[in-house]
Amino acid sequence: MERGRRRFLFLVSSSIQVIFMLFLANFQPSNAQDIYAEGFCSMYGICGQRSDGKVLNCPNRTHSVKPDELLSSKIQSLCPPITGNVCCSADQFDTLRGQVQQAIPLLVGCPACLRNFLNLFCELSCSPNQSLFINVTSIKKVNGTLAVDAIDFFVTHYFGEQLFNSCKDVKFGSMNTRAMDFVGAGAQNYADWFAFLGHQANLNEPGSPYAITFRSNIGNSTGMKPMNTTVYSCGDSSLGCSCGDCPSSAVCLDSSTPAPHVKQSCSINIGSLKIKCLDFSLAIVYLFLVSAFLLWGFVYRKKRAGPSRTMTLLNVRDGNNHNSGDKKEAPSQISEVVPPVVKAHRPSVIQLYMSNFFRKYGSFVSKNPTLILCLSLVVPLLLCLGLIRFKVETRPEKLWVGPGSRAAKEKQYFDSHLAPFYRIEQLILAGISGSDAERPPNIVTDKNLKLLFELQKKVDDLRANYSGSMVSLADICLKPLGKDCATQSVLQYFKMDPQNYDAYGGLDHVQYCFQHFSSAENCLSAFRAPLDPSTALGGFSGNNYSEASAFVITYPVNNELDETSTEYRSAVAWEKAFIRLIQDELVPMVQSQNLSLSFSSESSIQEELKRESTADVITILVSYLVMFAYISIMLGDRGHLSTFFVSSKLLLGLSGVVLVMLSVLGSVGFYSAIGIKSTLIIMEVIPFLVLAVGVDNMCILVHAVKRQPCELLLEERISNALVEVGPSITLASLSEVLAFAVGCFIPMPACRVFSMFAALAVLLDFFLQVTAFVSLIIFDFLRAEDDRVDCVPCVKLAPSKISDEGTVKEDPGLLARYMKEVHAPLLSLRGVKIIVIAVFVGFAFASIALCTRVQPGLEQKVVLPRNSYLQDYFDDLAKYLRVGPPLYFVVKDFNYSLEARNTNEICSISQCDSNSLLNEITKASLVPASSYIAKPAASWLDDFLIWLSPDAFSCCREFVNGSYCPPDDQPPCCQPNDGSCTLGIECEDCTTCFRYLDLHDGRPSTMQFREKLPWFLNALPSSNCAKGGKGAYTSSVDLSGYESGIIEASAFRTYHTPLNKQSDYVNSMKAARDFSSKMSDSLKMEIFPYAVFYIFFEQYLDIWRTALINISIGLGAVFVVCLVLTSSIWISAIILLVLAMIVIDMLGIMAVLDIQLNAISVVNLVMSIGIAVEFCVHITHAFLVSSGDRGTRTKLAVSTMGASVFSGITLTKLVGVVVLRFSKSQVFVVYYFQMYLALVLIGFLHGLVFLPVVLSICGPPSRSMPVDMRQHQQTS
Hints:
Blueprint: H1 12-19, E1 40-49, E2 55-63, H2 69-78, H3 90-100, H4 104-107, H5 111-126, E3 134-142, E4 145-154, H6 157-167, E5 171-172, E6 177-178, H7 180-183, H8 190-198, E7 211-215, H9 250-255, E8 267-270, E9 273-276, H10 277-304, H11 309-328, E10 341-345, H12 349-367, H13 369-384, H14 396-400, H15 406-417, E11 423-431, H16 446-461, E12 464-466, E13 469-471, H17 473-476, H18 500-504, H19 506-516, H20 533-536, E14 537-538, E15 550-557, H21 566-591, E16 595-600, H22 604-615, H23 617-634, H24 644-647, H25 650-673, H26 680-707, H27 714-741, H28 749-785, E17 788-789, E18 792-796, H29 814-827, H30 830-851, H31 869-880, E19 886-895, H32 902-906, H33 917-925, H34 928-931, H35 940-948, E20 957-958, E21 964-965, E22 974-977, E23 980-983, E24 991-992, H36 1006-1018, E25 1046-1055, H37 1062-1083, E26 1086-1090, H38 1094-1097, H39 1103-1126, H40 1129-1152, H41 1159-1185, H42 1190-1220, H43 1226-1258, E27 1264-1268, H44 1269-1275
Parallel strand pairs: 4-7
Antiparallel strand pairs: 1-2, 3-4, 5-6, 8-9, 10-27, 11-15, 11-16, 12-13, 14-15, 17-18, 19-25, 19-26, 20-21, 20-24, 22-23
């Protein structure tokens, strides 16, 4: 989309064609035989004009005429090859000069092209040998005088080919296109160009008033010869063009066009199968490891078969001793019966300290449960006071962009020094196809164009109320000339006026403008700029605009940095009214015509994200409520119906859930109090995370108390339970806290804030679990012992209605029996172990291969509600749009002094360095597949230097008093009169700003540059000088302090290629940064690329690095905590291995489910470490403190802790996750349902299947040793 083009080119090509009319003499044709010889003319003088004002020439065979000295000097200045006699009068030459002046500014950047172009017209107009190559083939009477109606112009094929080759690549900077689009209607060869120039135009249409047929072959009998004057190559050193205008020049070939970068991937061919080297290597390593494992198992079994029967019996006896001891009591339980010799666990110093602490603490809390409960609740309740300052951060730039972000700094620099990018409101009107395979119908029809006018009228009439004032599109839109909006729509071919539709020719006019948008004056937009059809149409291929299946209507709106300003809020108010208008009125209108309408405004995404944040509140609440209900029921006993009301622990479960919520609210309250805003991720994820951790701890604590012998006092049961599971709960919680805490140092705000909130929430949850929840357990067991009803403790049942629970051991439950009698024995089978190891290691290796396929990004459609109107808009955007986002290369501290040479290091016209910035951008645009640059850059510097050039004699002019003099077709030089321009006398004395001698090799001095730059930036482009900078470059240069010789900031605009996927956005940003970095190093200047989407996609450049750092630090933190608390590097390494495999498997699942890597998935991966710790730590701790061989200890660990882990995490999370499947937002389905479900299943399988097998094979040896308990008791 062209930004701010105020006033553009009058029909350059039609003006050129008018030149062909200026050569006929006023003389009547002679009756003599036609003469084709040197020194004779075919036409001379002007002999009239058509009714539309276009002048006509008279046919005349006469000798060439010797011009006077003044005319001769004028002809020499424009046509150096023509000397002596000429075939043009002074009037003809003046008209010729006036017409070619419109093309000169377009071509002067390439002297060879300009010279060839002028030679063509000079030979046609004034050549003394005109009769040799021009033949009048048709004449007609005009006002009684014969005038030329058609001619043949004979030009050699060589001249035509070389002329076209020298001009075909010349840029027209301000439009990011080629000058050929203006002077040749985008011709692809010289024949097309000549055909365009020679077309006879209808009345009031641009073009030649008579037909000109360009020919190269002449009959032998005529005596004529094709024109073959000197033609210059654009690579000619004497008339050297820049690499941007002439890529084929020798200098440019030496600097070589960048080859397309093709990402090489190593692969191996096995027959017809092509396998990646990484996949093949992993397969080989996997096969080797499995083979080694099987071999080791075979050798180990042979060794085990050697011991005698005595040893076997001894082992059996030891096992029986252990089992009998286990049946009587756990090793660390309090009991009055002390066997003479048992195997006691020898803990490390830290474990011993923790056991003693929990034993004493258990006794204290049992005696003072009310005090502990009240004191523990004070902490989170005080923290919750911070919720009065609770705020949610929804601005994407604050969530995903860190304060030190390069993109944020560059955006701030661009906005403050140049101008903030305009706001975009867009409509896409498309046809509806019968099926997906069927191509949509052509949208460019008479009926659809009239419908588009109706839609436009409603948009123009729209008024939005802001603070009592009515705001319309005209009040806020971008106006290049200060009058008309720069709306990008095919209606611009009718000046946005429905009255012009029939007057201009309706549908035929649109088709005409598709081919001549850059060259036809009556195709210019209302804001006087050419409208590229590719910006207003969609669904076409190549340049086949007539096949388009969609209209793309874009409304650029002025933007403001200050969100509290009236201008900003007025724009937002209008945008909201704009969306309502479309939904209420425009969509029904369009659908009634069997068309579709998708739409968006600048504020749409933010508004829809706000709606998305509340769209699934009910779903989330239902998910949590289902988990709450399950937890409350699951903690209770499964006794007889008669004891249910007493044995139930519904109130205890609900109380535990309240404690979890208090920990979350306390964390949010603390950070809110210190001014850190919350995020939607925090509100959606942290409750889930803390609930997972908290529920597991609740289950473990309650089950541990239940496992204690009922004959013990409650104080002893609580103390023994805390000694048994307190260290593992501490180990798991501290591991999780540290794993999250280290994430506070990452730069991405969303991940950093999540880690901060999560770390404190888990810490508070742990604190409340071992204080308040233990107190609640005591109260609940006291209630049960006193036969009081759960949830209504004031009601006491009669003793006759309950069994003697005080003397009956608690039923372990179905799940606990399954773990002890089925699951643990099954995993001890040798064949099962082999299968488990092979499958889990194989899946890990497959996940390593798959994780390389995980793509960074976050599809915009995923984060929006499924019923959002933006869903259709993004679909249509990818389907129809053929223009990429604008890209700016910003140069900082450009030294424009003549001595610094920065000018030639940047520009891309004649005499600029071949490796200049703009030349390199042009080269990069030749390989868009790798550079993602679609077009050469619009260069204010190139256009300024051309505007200054004496060759562009209609551009930089000054009055006698030294002030700026505009071109002759602008006021005050031209006074509008009934739509035409009447030349006045005010500008008769205007002269060009500089002569050739005033410049230094075509470059202005420092003072000249400083003086004329403001003139250029305020000069309106027009027919006589299309290089005026107002509008096109108004916001491209920062003039603050430029008088010092330094321009602090200047921008050169180009476009990215169409970007349809997240990877396209990421790769295009990376390519632009790599390019600017290379140019900065080469030119020793600070250059950076800028596009509006960079700030949102910068995170994905380093998202893999961020993810790996977070995961590595999290795993490392867990390893350190485990090592400190267990004093076993062996067990710590096993935990680290299992956690790493869980994370790797999660990445593999992400690849399979096509889940992208972004802040949300990184948060989920970090969270998976925390939840995975719960699956692993309790099992390993139980294994570590138990006695016996590895197999026996593994069975005991699974039997003891397996049920708690399975019911506390696996089943609880499964129940809650399933509800998220019915969410209205894809983000919940993809990143919460799918990832959480995968996490729960993978964690369960690794924690309760893979980990026990690993412990039974290579777990650390037991720390138990025989101890004389009687002696130990006496010593105590």
